[in-house]
Specification:
Blueprint lengths: L2 H22 L1 H11 L20 E5 L2 E4 L4 E4 L2 H4 L8 H12 L9 H14 L3 E5 L2 H16 L3 E5 L44 E4 L4 H11 L3 E6 L15 H11 L3 E5 L11 H6 L5 E4 L10 E5 L1 H4 L16 H14 L2 H25 L4 E5 L2 E5 L8 H4 L4 H13 L2 E2 L8 E2 L6 H19 L1
Parallel strand pairs: 3-13, 5-6, 5-7, 7-8, 8-9
Antiparallel strand pairs: 1-2, 2-3, 4-10, 9-10, 11-12, 12-14
Amino acid sequence: MTDDAITARAREIAEREAATLLERTPASGRLYERASNVMPYGVASSFQANDPYPIYVRRGEGSRVWDVDDNQYVDFHGGFGTMAVGHAHPKVVEAVERAARTGTHFAATTETTVALAEELCRRFRLDQVRFTNSGTEATMEAIRLARGATERDVVLKIEGSYHGHHDAVMFSVVPNSDVIGGREAPASTPLSKGIPADAVKQTLVVPFNDAEALARVLDDRGAEIACLIMEPIMMNIGIVLPQPGYLERVKDLCAKHGVVLIYDEVKSGATVAPGGASERFGVQPDLSCFAKAVGGGAALGAFGGRADLMNEITTGVAHMGTFNGNPLSAAAGLAALTEVLTDDAYEYLDKLGTILAEGCQRAIDDTGIAAHAVDLGCKGCVSYRREPLTNYRDFLECNVTLFEASWPWMVNRGVFMTPGDEEQWTISVQHSETDVNLYIAAFTELCQALTG
């Protein structure tokens, strides 16, 4: 079949499967009506919204979740990549229960918080670290630290990347093709209303995997730029790997111009390797930001790096937060990193991830679907473009119609997935080969339905 014929078939499948999903989830529909009275879109975060309504989850255990209609799913959503430990892991539950019995909050640092800081420094090769409550806070604080240390104002970011919802980085986040700008000068387009018009002057954009474009910007405006914040692996458009030598060149260019290199490892930290992307690719930034998987399912973020930069906090760069290092979150994070996400766990996650990606790729190859599968630790995805992505503009070539068919198809067959084509699957230590094979079987059937 031609790609156009497959796309037409995908529209038919999407319509049919969406209707089936609504029939299966009436309680979610009722809860949406109730929730919409008290929350915009009926959800706690706009990322959780879906059309016509989201699936509301009641509970999770191991590799599975149950929605409010009592439908059971194998969870490959993973809380947008947070739940590498799986749901209700006994080690994490024990640690949180113990912490709850001795006090849930003090706004004073506990020994558990200190121990977690030590583990983060060891695992990610940081001199010092500070805690936040989310990835957004972590990137916000790291940028402030870089600005304070360099006495410069301008932030440089990667085209199409998401680094949280504070004003400095809410530019060029999955921009539409009509506002993207040229390849030589990507546009700094705000994602949200409510961002001051003058803020655009403080944020510049460069493409991923293009060191020469970075060199040109730094040669032109390097003296104004405080930092480059980037995901070492782009993970808000599927998965885009850095090309060989790219991260090394980025680090050298930033050092040459006195620009602080910040890695956003909110998604890659503790998922793609024990020490995140900096370990996997061997390039250490000046500062790193973490959240999601490092918290073991609790609300926890962190940023850290070179001691001379972190010491700016003691000489005038503000960093506060009543709940920073909260004992419940610290207990969950420490248990996750020291008792669950061990070296053996990463070997197991690599094994499952390879099985899943290879199974999806076989289905793609056998049916000729315009797609490819990526495998990276407990993270991976199918992107609906034949060739691997190298930057954001490649992502714009993906066939979103195929994803719109795949999402309800997979959910209707017991696979819980993130609701956007820019996201990835997350495998937990509590997943099994049986779980992975369920995903492969459902995806294979989808490919056959699209082409049969």
